[in-house]
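Human: If only I could read backbone structure tokens as easily as an amino acid sequence. Take your time, and here it is.
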Amino acid sequence: MATFQATNTNAIEIYEKGLALVNQDRYQEAIAAFDQAIQLKPNVAVAWISRGVALERLGNHAEALASHEQAIKLEPNNFLAWYNKGIQLQELGRYPEAIVAHEHSLKLHPNDIDTLYNLGVELEKVDRYPEALAAYEQVLRQAADDSYTWNRRGVVLECLDRHAEAVESYDRALQAQPNFLEALNNRNLAQSKIGIKAAPISESPVPPKALPTVSPSGGITLGANPTLAPKVPAAYTQVGGTSTSQVSSSSAPTNPSITSTNPNFLETPNLAPLVIAGRTFTSRLMT
């Protein structure tokens, strides 16, 4: 197992080294760096959040959850900690708890489209379809061309026996992403339920590469919906012994950084936005 050994005792520099290691996909070393930074400054929530993101990258969802919960103990109103807690609960299949976490994060950042999208997925999982529909529609008011949200909206409408509306939703998904095979399959299924002949799959556009599918009951396919995207802090501020983590509300990619009255709080390297199967997340994963 790879290890990390700090050459100094500056917690911020060690933390930033951890971010750099994450950028290099060296997650075990990154976790070791975050652990050392936490040993030096145990009450900094941002370090616990970043540690949780690195653990998630390794698939250690239970440990990642514990790390985000520790951040919440330090900063009860930390949006990123609540959001990432919800993501890990979703990964663990604990959907009712994930809903609670994401509803709380929405109180702190009401219009965050990734939180709304994930909340919709979790509400689907517990058959709360009208609420899931409302969450997806709130996403679409901000991101009208999001094909994955249109597809999931169609799935929910199918579950509510609103098949004609589901067809329209799948059509919108295909307008935004013509090669979205799952949306085409779902549209054909919905059309068959209202007496419209489905278009042959052979006449459809070339499907995207390596799009995994999930087939729930009824044959509906959800495709590679990028629901599980933890967020990294966009900024950290520490003033007078208190700290708050913030996420940018801009749709443009943001760079995690650490700022403070302490000159040792330096900016971190630029990070690219997360893109999964054509859906872009803003101010999201450390890559």
